TrEMBL record:
Keyword Acyltransferase: yes
Organism taxonomic ancestry: Bacteria, Pseudomonadati, Bacteroidota, Flavobacteriia, Flavobacteriales
GO molecular function: acyltransferase activity, transferring groups other than amino-acyl groups
One Pfam family linked to the record: Chal_sti_synt_C
Domain Chalcone/stilbene synthase N-terminal per the UniProt entry, residue ranges: 47-214
Protein name (database record): Predicted naringenin-chalcone synthase
Top-level division of the source organism's lineage: Bacteria
Family, as annotated: Belongs to the thiolase-like superfamily. Chalcone/stilbene synthases family.
Keyword Transferase applies: yes
Naturally occurring in which organism (per UniProt): Flavobacterium fluvii
Domain Chalcone/stilbene synthase C-terminal intervals: 234-361
GO biological process: one example: polyketide biosynthetic process
Keywords from the named record: Acyltransferase, Transferase
InterPro entries according to UniProt: Chalcone/stilbene_synt_C, Chalcone/stilbene_synt_N, Polyketide_synthase_type-III, Thiolase-like
Amino acid sequence: MGFPLPMDNFKNMSVKIKCVSKQLPKYSRKTEEIIPFLDTWLVGQDARFIKKVKKIFESAAVDKRYSIMDPIEVFANTSFEERNDIYVREVIELGEKVLEKSLIKADWNPEDLDYIITVSCTGIMIPSLDAYLINKLQLRQDIVRLPVTEMGCAAGISGIIYAKNFLKANPGKRAAVIAVESPTATFQLDDFSMANIVSAAIFGDGAACVLLSSHNEDEGPEILDEEMYHFYEAEHLMGFKLTNSGLQMVLDIEVPETIASHFPDIINPFLEKNNLKIEDLDHLIFHPGGKKIVQTVEELFSDLGKNIDDTKEVLRLYGNMSSATVLYVLERIMDAKPQKGSKGLMLSFGPGFSAQKVLLQF
């Protein structure tokens, strides 16, 4: 006759974020270095239009961005197949480096991982990245794997939510969430729409890895709660359209206003459920979707004396790297050694349209 596990074991068991690491691609350019490439790309276009495009790049609040491709390749007339081949090759390399870096930071061995989640929406690869990482790092043959491919910018937090639920149900286990994105691989040479131009102005490439644990001996910020919020009738706001030339950006001008109009419903009930108010939050760990979204969120919080300076700084230094970006913000805050007991809210938005939230206690 078996003995059931005491319920207290699960009530007292917590899921913690052990560490976060980032990995940047080998190519980089400052925004002013990108402007000459625009002259070549926009040749033959109306002079007022060219001026407008340059203004969008110069006022995007992005000083520098990294890429898996040299700018000459980005602005070259390469096929979808050629770009995707570069994406696959570079994503595997970035994923391997960032996972190794995180394991070293945590002082874990590759075989310590029980669960691996890989996140990317900017290319297509089957087998998915996690399969390659299992072989590259000789992860355990019984590791549970989950590739997340179609949740866009929100997927970094989505991966944390999935890992947390797995670990909550399995005490004493460890998980890795690896986000690797290359929005520059989706740039469309023959698309002069505002969606393609704005995305080119704000996006960059990058990788990040979060290690999580339900081991009692592991330290780090505890995940107190998590939640997804789905907007109705908003599928048109954000995503990719698969075309013969690749993944074409869908980015509706309504996004910042839509976020602002839903913000109280996204934030307040979630905090109330945890007996908190916005004033109780010490750290706002927001995905920097772009200058307008950052300004919208900043305005909503400025009256309460809260800032999103780390979010703005990540946008300035790296651009929007889709799902990986909010993890760069988290790394900055964790590296600053927050006061014990302080609370943070992670938030990102993605196709669907949806908002993903995680409440942390440091």
